[in-house]
Amino acid sequence: MLLHEKVGYAPGMMKVRVIAETDELLVLNKPAGLITHGDGRTVEPSLAQWIAERYPSMAAVGEPWVSPQGESVPVSGLVHRLDRTTSGVLLAAKTDEAFAALRQAFKERRVEKTYRVFVYGHMELGAGRIVSEIARTTEPPKRWYAKPCDETDVRAAITEWRVLERMSDLGTGEPVAYLEARPFTGRTHQIRVHLASIGHPIIADHLYAEGRPALLGFARPALHANAVSLELGGVRRDFTAPLPPDMVHALQAADTVLLT
Which of 32, 52, 108, 246 is the least buried, fewest Cβ under 10 Å from its Cβ? Predict the structure, then answer.
C-alpha cells in the first residue's frame, strides 16, 4: 500500500524527495551532489545518513559496504547506488527480508532502470546496444574503461540506448543528443564508460570527457536515473523521478535549435 509522498531536509544536506513508500520499500529521488553512502575516506552528509535520521529502524538494514580501507559503512537499506554527480531514483528496503529480495531481483535482472542523458555529438543510428567489460586501469590516474568482450562473458556489461532528440548547443553550435539509456547490468560508471567508448561521452563528464566544453549549461555529468520498474506483490510498479532543473533548462534552451 502506498503511504505518502513528502519532501525532507537533513542538516547541511540538499533536498531529498520521497517518491513513494510502502511497508517494505522506500523510493527516493537523490539530488546530484549528494553521495549515496559514505566511502570510508571522507566524512560528509550522505543519503544513507538522511534515511537513518528519519527512519531509525532502517539504519541497520542491509549488508554494510566495506571500503578498500576495511571500514564497514552502513547503507540504511539502500539496495543500489548512484554516483555523487548523478540524480534520480534509488530504492531502499525497510527490512532485511525486503533487502534480500530486492538484491536477488537486481541479480536476476528483474529490475528495469531507465536513464536520461545528454551526450556530445549525433549518433548515426537511432538506437544501439553496447556490450563490453568495465575494466579499471592499473596506472594512475585510475579510472574505468570499456574492454571488448562477448555477451556470454560473465564480466560483460550491457547498455542499450536510443536517441530522443538531436540538437545543438545554443552558444557554440556543437551537436549534442538527448538519449534514453537502459543498463542491464550494474557496473561502476557503466553508462558513462559505455557512451564514451562509442565516441559520445556524457556532457560535462570530468572523467570521460576531460577537456571538452561543458555544453548546455551543465556543471556536472548530464546523467539522471529517470525511472525504476519492478514487481511488487505480483504487480509491476514504475517509479519516476522528474528531470532536475539543469536538465529541464537544457531541454528548454535547446528547443529553439532542434535539428531536423
Answer: 108
Q: Is residue 234 part of a domain?
A: no
Best CA proximity match to 116, nearest among 202, 194, 5: 202
Nearest Cα to Cα of residue 188 among 83, 66, 48, 76 = 83
Q: Are residues 95 and 16 both part of a single domain? A: yes
Using alpha carbons, select from 203, 142, 209 the residue that is nearest to residue 178: 203
84 within some domain = yes
Question: Does 257 lie in the same domain as 140?
Answer: yes
User: 120 with 192: CB under 8 angstroms?
Assistant: no
Domain boundary among 86, 108, 130: 108
Looking at the domain assignment, is residue 233 inside a domain? no
Domain that residue 1 falls in: 1-108
> What is the SS3 assignment for 213?
coil
* Active-site residue list: 83
Q: Which pairing describes strands 144-148 and 72-73: parallel, antiparallel, or unpaired?
A: unpaired
How many structural domains comprise the chain? 2
Residue 79, C-beta contacts closer than 8 angstroms, at least 6 positions apart = 62, 91, 92, 93, 99, 102, 103, 106
- 92-148: per-residue pLDDT in tens? 999 999 999 999 999 999 999 999 999 999 999 999 999 999 998 888 777 889 999
List, in order, residues 6 or more apart from 211 with CB less than 8 Å away: none
* pTM of model > 0.85: yes
In a domain, 136, yes or no: yes
Which residues, in sequence order, are CB contacts of 91 under 8 Å at separation 6+?
Answer: 25, 26, 27, 28, 78, 79, 80, 102, 111, 228, 230, 239
C-alpha cell at 85: 554527480
